[in-house]
Amino acid sequence: MLAVPEMGLQGLYIGSSPERSPVPSPPGSPRTQESCGIAPLTPSQSPKPEARAPQQASFSVVVAIDFGTTSSGYAFSFANDPETIHMMRKWEGGDPGVAHQKTPTCLLLTPEGAFHSFGYTARDSYHDLDPEEARDWLYFEKFKMKIHSATDLTLKTQLEAVNGKKMPALEVFAHALRFFKEHALQELREQCPSLPEKDIVRWVLTVPAIWKQPAKQFMREAAYLAGLVSRENAEQLLIALEPEAASVYCRKLRLHQLMDLSSRAPGGGRLGERRSIDSSFRQAREQLRRSRHSRTFLVESGVGELWAEMQAGDRYMVADCGGGTVDLTVHQLEQPHGTLKELYKASGGPYGAVGVDLAFEQLLCRIFGEEFITTFKRQRPAAWVDLTIAFEARKRTAGPHRAGALNISLPFSFIEFYRKQRGHNVETALRRSSVNFVKWSSQGMLRMSCEAMNELFQPTVSGIIQHIEALLARPEVQGVKLLFLVGGFAESAVLQHAVQTALGARGLRVVVPHDVGLTILKGAVLFGQAPGVVRVRRSPLTYGVGVLNRFVAGRHPPEKLLVRDGRRWCTDVFERFVAAEQSVALGEEVRRSYCPARPGQRRVLINLYCCAAEDARFITDPGVRKCGALSLELEPADGGPDTAGAPPGRREIRAAMQFGDTEIKVTAVDVSTNRSVRAAIDFLSN
């Protein structure tokens, strides 16, 4: 394959034989210049991907950061004791009765944009600011969702603080990651003073599996800016997909660490009878003892008791219900080492716990008016944060069988601000509104019935169940036996009851880990110690490049015909690297060769395209879009400083792309010198 500089197709060669003919670009053809920079050097049939064992970087400790929409935290384990996971338990501040192994994803910056605090400290500091002073400070919360929802994410994307002021998103994320880096390194120094200071940490960042490549690259760029790792040591940072991390952790669990929702007594406490899970395990274990092969499988894989009950080839689903999104993945357990194979590409949507918060805000708008709520948020941002905290505390206590009403405190500034703005009090507003299931209590609180609270959950919970049911209906995932419900939102009794009610009748066993809110964080640590545990993934999209092929009448559209020097070419052909839904093994490579289009060329830039369809033929087809660029930085060849006069077809640059990891990676080598070529894929250049 031959690459051409951005200026056009001049000097392009094509063909599978050593004798190649030049194909200069037609004058005044900007569309062709933009879309066709590559032509096949060999027949268009792609070579079979080659597998290569992933190279492991040296490290002494793995530190995983679970950067969540509503709460975040970190954990670590040492390479010499990888399964002993150390949790951070020293977060200052916090809400009474709530475990502090994570801290709110809240960032406070000074009016000048300098870092002030993160987590509980940021939230409490912002609360203590004078209302007038708070207008100038930059307070960010639940900002992770902005990266998911941004359709044109770039390094210049802006985030809006609570007071309406904007700041580059990259800087906001870097501030947060830098906080975790410094906090984690200080903890490591205290626990193990003998650890060397440099290049001993493998960092792991968690992201939703449904995030596209630009969002993943954005998190990596933020990590570079925060100083977690350098670009030269990029392999010291891994991106972990949240439901995968949960799956890796769940496979290690024992029975007493799990809650089987199908065996809970209706309306009971946290955990009902576990007879079904225990008895079925004993029965399965007896069967496994009769099989020498199965005994070997259990010993070698190191999986937990629940997995001993499953046979190799069994399938299960993980539903990661977080603050911002629900992430679904389906895995198959493989012999002999208990590795995992993804059966269907990750799916899901924006059905996280923040959907309940938005429903509450809409309820307030119905009672007090949308204009007032908007004004109050803008002019009293700290008081609005107080109100959301009060609602969060009550949201956590909601349950399908709760009898008593829920009281939500309204900040005094809210009550006073409403009276000044509207000329009457909040009690009058409640009486006048059409909302009859929220009352005003004598203690100065909103009194909400349990039915009303549960109604706030319904749109989000229904979206989660519909996604799970749609995935279960697909033929690729038939035979799923278990559903692991994980993530912070999975702690909700409302969600647990709804999922079990909807799916339990189908014979699906719904299981929740006891430390459900920490499942992803702990799994990310284990993933960092052994990233090869997920052996096969499914490509979420079809990726490829635009090329020129020989024009075949009757097969290629006439409008794609390009004739130069008597040769007939078809433009805009979409050459596929990997197809959507294609299974790709870890370390598997797709190789392509490129040649500089002119002597002395120092950089080759090739546009990458993607689409959801598997059968796209041209880069101009509906749904096909440019998603990034492959960049190859060339050094002068041995023949001279700029290889002047050398035929451009003589220098071959071989690029190898890996689609089976959590990120798309590329390496390249100059075949003539066997030197590595600096190669990168940029998904944020659009």
Description:
It contains 18 helices and 36 strands. A hairpin with a 4-residue loop joins strand 35 (665-670) and strand 36 (675-682). The longest helix has 23 residues, at 169-191. The chain is an alpha+beta fold and 686 residues long. The radius of gyration is 28 Å and the shape is globular. Residues 12-53 are annotated as: Disordered. InterPro entries: ATPase_NBD.
Largest sheet properties: 10 strands, antiparallel
Query: What Rg, in angstroms, do the CA atoms define?
Result: 28 Å
Helical proportion?
A: 25-40%
Share in β-strands: 25-35%
Major sheet: order of its strands?
Answer: 5-31-34-35-36-33-32-27-29-28
InterPro entries: ATPase_NBD
Protein name: Heat shock protein family A (Hsp70) member 12B
Organism: Prolemur simus (Greater bamboo lemur)
Region (Disordered): 12-53
Keywords:
single chain, 686 residues, alpha+beta, 10-stranded antiparallel beta sheet, 8-stranded mixed beta sheet, 30% helix, ATPase_NBD
Secondary-structure map with pairings?
Layout: E1 2-3, E2 13-14, E3 21-22, H1 30-35, E4 38-39, E5 50-51, E6 61-67, E7 71-78, E8 81-87, E9 103-104, E10 106-109, E11 115-118, H2 120-128, H3 131-134, E12 138-141, H4 144-149, E13 158-160, E14 166-168, H5 169-191, E15 201-207, H6 213-226, E16 237-241, H7 242-250, E17 258-260, H8 275-289, H9 292-301, H10 305-308, E18 315-321, E19 326-333, E20 340-349, H11 354-368, H12 370-379, H13 381-397, E21 406-409, H14 412-422, H15 426-432, E22 438-440, E23 445-448, H16 450-472, E24 480-486, H17 493-503, E25 509-513, H18 519-529, E26 534-538, E27 542-550, E28 561-564, E29 567-578, E30 583-585, E31 588-594, E32 603-611, E33 625-633, E34 653-658, E35 665-670, E36 675-682
Helix pairs in contact: 2-13, 5-6, 7-18, 11-12, 11-16, 12-13, 16-17
